[in-house]
């Protein structure tokens, strides 16, 4: 399904449905298509918003996790969003973490899946190899438990990015920024209910990373999904949506009076 890309000031985003905002932040090679099953499911109950993160549009000094967080903060202010359920995958999870630590006031809950911020395996020392389509295909397949998830369309998208010298420089800058920006000491400050959904076969942010987040974030719950890699919302959308729906339903119910 094609969604209309809206624009307000400098911000581009998609917005579907009505209700409490569910804001989705994509990762380093992420695209709006990563969230299509999630958008379709939750537009029935929530106002689902996917901002297009300016991964390649910031100047090189601001091409950092912090630079992306500033963009998200201004976006939230521009749309005047409140009671936000903030969901991030991979680098998007890292941006969500930095945001909730700096600006917790508009955030109702946090959802992380395959998030960086504690530990992540990079794409390897030789990455990115420009012009080698087969190499890029194999690297893209590593995102998933099932290599067939790396469709030609997805590999083509990654190949196009890695074939552009300036984009490659910015990817490396963002990846290095994510590795430097370790949040282990600060995670105990997060007060909002937090849902962690991890692929048991994630080799980029392995399951022990999800367990460590669970240990460090006070009000968090962890769901590990078998036969699933780094992008559960793409690889096992049915199971992912079910876990997320339960979590959001629980939050919408009034607390029992003892």
TrEMBL record:
Pfam families assigned to the protein according to its UniProt record, in alphabetical order: Abhydrolase_1
Matches recorded under InterPro entries: AB_hydrolase_1, AB_hydrolase_fold, AB_hydrolase_sf
Domain (AB hydrolase-1) ranges: 21-119, 181-235
Any one GO MF annotation of this record: hydrolase activity
Record's keyword terms, sorted: Hydrolase
Organism superkingdom: Bacteria
UniProt keyword annotation of Hydrolase present: yes
Any single GO CC term annotated in Swiss-Prot or TrEMBL for this entry: membrane
Keyword Hydrolase (UniProt): yes
Full protein name: Alpha/beta fold hydrolase
């Amino acid at each position: 399904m094609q969604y209309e890309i809206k624009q307000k000031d400098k911000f581009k985003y998609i917005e579907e449905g009505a209700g409490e905002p569910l804001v989705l932040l994509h990762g380093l090679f992420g695209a709006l298509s990563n969230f299509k099953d999630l958008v379709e499911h939750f537009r029935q109950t929530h106002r689902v918003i996917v901002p297009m993160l300016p991964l390649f549009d910031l100047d090189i000094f601001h091409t950092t996790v912090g630079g992306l967080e500033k963009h998200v903060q201004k976006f939230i202010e521009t749309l005047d969003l409140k009671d936000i359920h903030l969901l991030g995958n991979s680098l998007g999870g890292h941006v969500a973490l930095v945001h909730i630590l700096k600006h917790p006031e508009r955030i109702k809950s946090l959802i992380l899946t395959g998030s960086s911020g504690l530990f992540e395996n990079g794409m390897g020392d030789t990455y990115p190899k420009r012009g080698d389509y087969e190499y890029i295909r194999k690297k893209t397949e590593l995102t998933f438990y099932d290599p067939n998830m790396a469709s030609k369309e997805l590999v083509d998208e990654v190949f196009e990015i890695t074939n552009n010298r300036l984009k490659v420089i910015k990817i490396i800058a963002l990846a290095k920024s994510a590795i430097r920006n370790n949040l282990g000491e600060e995670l105990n400050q997060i007060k909002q209910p937090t849902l962690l959904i991890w692929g048991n076969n994630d080799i980029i942010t392995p399951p022990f990373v999800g367990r460590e987040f669970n240990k460090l974030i006070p009000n968090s719950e962890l769901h590990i999904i078998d036969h699933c890699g780094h992008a559960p919302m793409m690889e096992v959308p049915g199971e992912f949506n079910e876990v997320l729906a339960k979590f959001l339903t629980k939050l919408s119910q009034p607390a029992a009076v003892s």
